[in-house]
């Protein structure tokens, strides 16, 4: 199964789109299918920063956040096999949960090619 991606908002102008190896700064909120919240960068008022496509986050994020523009908002519906090992989250749900994320990409930092 694949990540379901819904674009909530895309800016009129999109210079760069996110790609593997980029460092992304974003806000997110995560819920279970029944709407139960389990994690949010907004509640901490601290954007989340990570390198895309390098295994720092769940596979569903590495897939679902490719090709995003700065300022874009997406809804990701992530099947259990792509959501295992979610970091920093309440682990009271099993690895069999569908995870739903609302994500807003704030900044893309491109690493120079080696």
TrEMBL record:
Domain PPIase FKBP-type per the UniProt entry, residue ranges: 21-109
Keyword Isomerase carried by entry: yes
Keyword Ligase: no
InterPro entries: FKBP2/11, PPIase_dom_sf, PPIase_FKBP_dom
A Pfam match: FKBP_C
Entry GO MF terms: peptidyl-prolyl cis-trans isomerase activity
Gene3D superfamilies noted in UniProt: 3.10.50.40
Keyword list, A-Z: Isomerase, Rotamase
Class of enzymatic activity (EC top level): isomerase
GO CC terms in record: endoplasmic reticulum
Catalytic reactions on record: [protein]-peptidylproline (omega=180) = [protein]-peptidylproline (omega=0)
EC number(s) reported in the record: 5.2.1.8
Stored PANTHER family: PEPTIDYL-PROLYL CIS-TRANS ISOMERASE FKBP2 (PTHR45779:SF3), PEPTIDYLPROLYL ISOMERASE (PTHR45779)
Name of protein: peptidylprolyl isomerase
Native source organism of the sequence: Ifrita kowaldi
